[in-house]
Amino acid sequence: MPDQPGNSKSTSIALVGKGGAGVITAGEILLIAAARAGLYGMMIPVIGPQIRGGESGALLRLGNFPINCLDDRIDVLAGIGWLHAERFRSDIPIDADSQIVTDPAEGAVPDFIIDAGARIYELEMTALAQSIEGGRENMIVLGYVARLAGIPEFAVLQAVEKKLGRKGRDAIRASNECVQLGYGKAAGVSQVEPEAAPGASDSRWLMSGNHATGLGAIRGGIRFAAAYPITPATEVLEWLAPRLSDAGGTLVQAEDELASINMVIGASFAGIPSLTATSGPGLSLMIEGLGLAVGAEIPIVVIDVMRGGPSTGIPTKPEQSDFNAAVYGLHGDAPHIVVAPNSVTDCVFTTQWAVHLADATQAPVIVLSDQFIGQTNVVLDPIPAIAFFAKRKLAENIDGKFERYALTADGISPIPVPGTPGGQYLAGGLTHSPTARPSGMVHDHVAQLDKRARKIDDFDYGQHWADIEGDGELAIITWGSTTGTVKEAIDRLPPELSAKLKLISLRLLLPAQPRKLADALKGVERLLVIEQNHSGQLYRFLRAWYDLPAATETLHRPGPTVFRPGEIVERLLDWGQP
Amino acid sequence: MSRVPSNFFAQPFSLGELLAHALAIELDAVQSYSELAEQMRQCGNDDVAELFERMSKLEAEHASKIREEAGDTELPELAPWEYRWLELEAPENIDLAGVHYLMTPYHALSLALDNENGALAFFEAAADNCEDDRTRELAIEFADDERQHVAWMEEWLAKFPEPDTDWDEDLDPPAAID
Amino acid sequence: MSAQAPCKLKASDYKSDYKPVWCPGCGDYHVLLSLTKAVAQIGLRPEEIAVVSGIGCSSRISGYLNCYGFHGIHGRALPLATGVKVARPDLTVIAAGGDGDGFSIGGNHLLHACRRNIDITYVVMDNEIYGMTKGQPSPTTDPDWDSKLAPGGTGISPFHPLVIALASGANFVARAFSGDPNGTARILVDAINHPGFSFVQILSPCVTFRPDQKEWKNAVHPAPVTPTSDPAQAARRLMTDDGFNIGVLYKGAREPYRQAVVREPRVERDIDEEFMV
């Protein structure tokens, strides 16, 4: 594997081919194989516009350290046919050192690959596959590429069993033979020796951000979900459906997002922690409902797996452009909470934290995930369970006149579970008095606005508001999936530069934490804000809420391609000059 | 709704049933008038509010009298639709078409008069459909009471002239509050 | 339905102390009366009832009972109520609203609530107008009814709520008239007790913007048939419905929506294990 700074090593692999060739399956098996060999890794599927039969690709990066972003280049590119491969051009940056695996029988290697000067390796995938009964080209390529990457053969075979076990012994036998055949063919070509990394084991986890989000939800205590499918969030809901049921909860498929947001509000009003997941267009539909949850003080969690926007945008690609909608979208003065996980692993904690925050503050919490985190499969260390649960301040044993929206010091007033005698009240969006009686009087309106703002602003978010690493007079603020790429970029800097660099990855986006950020920025003279959207949404927000150093710049661009460490390194080197 | 064959004549009234019906007329009237009074207060129609409050009190007095009359007699527990009125609606059922936020005492008393006439008609008819003499006597007595109430209402009503044709004119338009 | 012994409250005990904003003479006063009589008759405890409404004059009703109420956003009473009932099958859930809230902005939710057959009762107070916003035509308004927003009338055929509810799978379909509170109470008791989605259209005249609806008390008449459990027969009856037939049209035997939050885990599943490589 190419060397990273220190002893970190990683290999980037891309498998492309026509739809039906099983490229994505091969990629998934390769990732499992790497995990079994004790490596970390990630795999992102890339697809063309057709539902079936179109071109597809699997982008992998495997390494001996936790992988949270793609590299700047591809080490190995294998193509099972090169149909429309140029559509993936921006996803597969190759150069003269890249190894290209091709089957001459499947067509010529595209010009952009030739022009890059990459080294071409011919592999008769079709012929080899046909030589084995039930053989498939993707398994031949899998074996070959695994050997190139230095993955031990046993790991690949184990991975085949795990992934294809359901298809029966014949399928496994055929696949294994193909793998072994391809593996053998690469032996003379590969520049690395296969090794099981120290501590090679099968105790690692493999999960996507969407599944990790679901796990965080259940761990946090969610027992009701409403679901309307939308790319790229659907997997959160599909993962939750059976597992919620097993946990004693339930998921209801709604007729639209207007229904799903109102269903979760109703279920939460009835006493059950509730959640829904969507993407940008769905979030827009849910905005009115979010406002209702604010006004009626009902805890709910809404996951937004962000995709390219605006409007229908680019459904299958990530972007961090729903920040404004999540933070500013609600009409009226409607304080609420917005959090963002900054890696696949962090989806578990941040979602669980969101559930806890929602119930504790009796307010809606929006979780801004994105397609990159959501649909990337990552090998990571097991995530132990922590004791952070949904727990609302309940009104019980109610005696006498009950004030649902009492003006308490911390702004949080006890909420009854329906069925509790004496706790009957009218929840709703109309401005109300502390007893919940609708009221348009100035003192009630102001008092309730103060209350709802106070409960959010004064809440103790602890140290989870941001992940802060390093120290120095230079600081970077970023959030979400960009974090992993920034971290890797920092690792690649010359030590004298990274030594004076502080990284602040915000997990709590709203409410702003002026004092905490002021503390974090003590001694910082120059600030760089990095985010993936066209208009610098976080940057504008920071300007509104915080005193920033005079020398503050931004690095922001929209999707659909994710940030690569190299482009950040380039900017940091330039920016870091005194 | 009155184009319906009533179940009034399905069977004769027992003592308990008659008392239950009589009590229901009064208690429901207490509720209705009291609610109407509240509505009139909300609209600033204080004259009529006071009127309805008085009527509610009167009906409450009538109800007490009936309870006394009932003594220890066991009254059947009837669902609201199990009462056997002459028409499908109970005599004390307010015809909301006669209610208006600008209604005058004339309107309120006309409404009350309708109710009393309805109650009167009920007891007169019930007197011919009783199980026994005791019950029949009571029905006649109740009918007499209602006749008296009708007379009072008519007398009261006579104090108020029929309103002008523009009694419901409001120079302000309705408000949209939601 | 309550697992404890029925309580013996009077209808007026179910009223909250909020003074209704409705115009005096509004049919909704009698709907409130009918509803309180109905729940009193069944013997439900106030704290075990959830009344969920949208926005509009009729939707104010959730504030006028001393039950757990939710005055939600326009058109969304049914998904709110669905969430409540699925989360807490032990509660009696009543959704309420008007014809604009329920059939226009809420129309899609009506279709799917009927389809799901959630065990709730939906009461629509139909006055063929948007009353709260001062008199626009609603989906049940006649096509030639003149208004500021649609001078000369909309020219659009009105929606037939009972047909839609029946076709979408509601398990109980009825029409009532607010002017007969006792009769309406009876229909509501039937609706609440009947499993699955119970749809009750209550004709409830608007005293302020539809003075012509004073005539409704002369137009309504009891339906000349007993309720049927055959949806085809119910559909045939609706073909000759004059819009003023009062009574229960249809009482079906569809299974109510069964997924519910049950609180106790049903299966010992180690989710974490699934992620192991």
Characterise this structure.
The complex is a heterotrimer of chains A (578), B (178) and C (277). By secondary structure, chain A is α/β, with parallel strands linked by helices. Chain A has four domains: 10-196, Pyruvate-ferredoxin oxidoreductase, PFOR, domain III (Pyruvate-ferredoxin Oxidoreductase, domain 3); 206-380, Rossmann fold (3-Layer(aba) Sandwich); 393-459, no CATH class; 462-575, 3-Layer(aba) Sandwich (Rossmann fold). Helix content of chain A is 36%, strand content 19%. Chain A has 19 helices and 21 strands. An eight-stranded mixed sheet of chain A has the order 6-5-4-1-3-2-14-7. In chain A, strands 9-8-10-11-13-12-19 form a seven-stranded mixed sheet, sandwiched between helices. In chain A, strands 16-18-17-20-21 form a five-stranded mixed sheet, sandwiched between helices. In chain A, strand 2 and strand 3 form a beta hairpin. Chain A is globular. Chain B has helices at residues 15-42, 46-70, 105-127, 133-158. The longest helix of chain B is centred in the N-terminal third of the chain and has 28 residues, at 15-42. Chain C has one domain (27-256): Rossmann fold (3-Layer(aba) Sandwich), CATH 3.40.50. An eight-stranded mixed sheet of chain C has the order 2-1-3-4-6-5-8-7, with helices on both faces. In chain C, helix 3 packs across helix 4 (107-116), helix 4 crosses helix 5 and helix 5 packs antiparallel against helix 8 (231-239). The radius of gyration of chain C is 19 Å and the shape is globular. Chain C starts with 27 loop residues before the first helix and ends with a helix. The model of chain C has no long low-confidence stretch (mean pLDDT 95). At the A-C interface, helix 1, strand 7, helix 7, helix 8 and strand 9 of A face strand 2, helix 2, helix 4 and helix 9 of C. Strand 15 (426-428) of chain A pairs parallel with strand 2 (68-71) of chain C.
